[in-house]
Amino acid sequence: MIRRNLPAAIVLTISAALTLTACGGGDDSKDSDEIVGADKQSPAAGSSPSPSKESGSQNLPDFKLPKDIKVEIEPVETGNELKDQILREQAESLMARQRILVDRDVNSGYLNRYYEGEARDFYITLIKKAKAEGMTITGTYRYYDRKITQNTKDRAVVTYCEDQTKAYSKDVKTGKAQKTEPSPEDFTLNTAVLTKTPNSTWVVQSLTGKTPAQECQ
Question: Whole-prediction pTM value?
Answer without folding.
Answer: 0.75
